Amino acid sequence: MKFSNYPRLRKTISAVLPVVAILFFAACSEDESATEVYTKINEFYPPSAEVGAIVTINGENFSSSETGNSVKFGEAEADVKSASTNQLKVEVPKGATSAKISVTVKGTTVKSINTFNLIYNGPSISLFHPEKGPIGSGVTIEGTNFSEEPSENTVMFGEVQAKVLKSNEKELKVIVPENAITSKLSVTVDGETWASEDDFEVIEISQLNEIQTVYLYNLADNESSSFYNSTLQTTYVNNLFEGPSAEEQQQVDISFGVLDNDNAQAGNVYPNFISPKLRVALGFDNDLGINATETTFKEEDPDLDLELVTPDDLEFNVDHSGGTGLTKISIAGDKVYSFINAAGVKGYIEVVEVNGADDYKYVELKILVQKK
């Protein structure tokens, strides 16, 4: 055998080997690329569920380890209960929303084609009453899915938590907390929160002036009468010779007169509280002019004791909404009436006694009014 060509063969092999190596590694790279796996979500069911329900996700190339899969409903991460490479069972988490489901495996995230629909099963607020009140007053919240255990309901007035006194599935009774301001109410139960559409108005309750005894009269075909300014607790006389000034007229809120059933002044026999503005419209000779304001009146419980009335009583029990407040009201002794003037100031009037005949009448009153 001749070995004279060995050097040439060695040179040929040395030249070919690098090329073979390159082709080998390229083939391996192409093979690895061809076998690279991708996570995929094919479907999930049920398509709608509430928080805490189990949702099954079918797909491909999930991690067989529960902790190797990160599943989210929107931005809320779910607890993976079981896992295989083609199926995950997860619990709908608190904070979930109607959104696409995402699965992340080894840093790669895929999302479902369809949107998961969250069935809301948390608390809801339909209304609350009263719609305004002071610190320390009571508020009733009506709605659904409240807890029957008061401590399991978190009620907020804006950013301030309120004390829940009583609760059942449809109603909460709470106290307006210290430092509360006008804001929306919210109720949280088991991590689910619902906020009211409207604000609760936090108000300051006006204190009360001392009860005043007042005498008003109407004499001689209305040519002389007297009026009352409850804010200043002042009585004005109005007759042919003197009367309230323009500034004083603006502050008068209670006037007294006598009328018949047709509001006529002739042959009048019925004593009335009359709104100053209506007094002008009725054409009294001693009217209050263009500055007269509007006051409404309403008959109340005759057994109401003015001495026992609190600021809260006056603020919340005097209500002339729905047309219940009248611009004139026939009065009688031993009766109690409420009034609200143009500035929103509220008060009670106890008619102690009505004296006189026909259009010569005078009344003794006790008046309790808010202090403004």
Automatic annotation (TrEMBL):
Keyword Signal: yes
Signal peptide: 1-26
InterPro entries: Fibrocystin, Ig-like_fold, Ig_E-set, IPT_dom
Keywords tagged on the record: Signal
Superkingdom field: Bacteria
Domain IPT/TIG: residue ranges: 41-116, 123-197
Gene3D superfamilies given in the database record: Immunoglobulins (2.60.40.10)
Transmembrane segment boundaries: none
The name this protein goes by in its record: IPT/TIG domain-containing protein
Organism: Flagellimonas spongiicola
Native organism taxonomy: Bacteria, Pseudomonadati, Bacteroidota, Flavobacteriia, Flavobacteriales
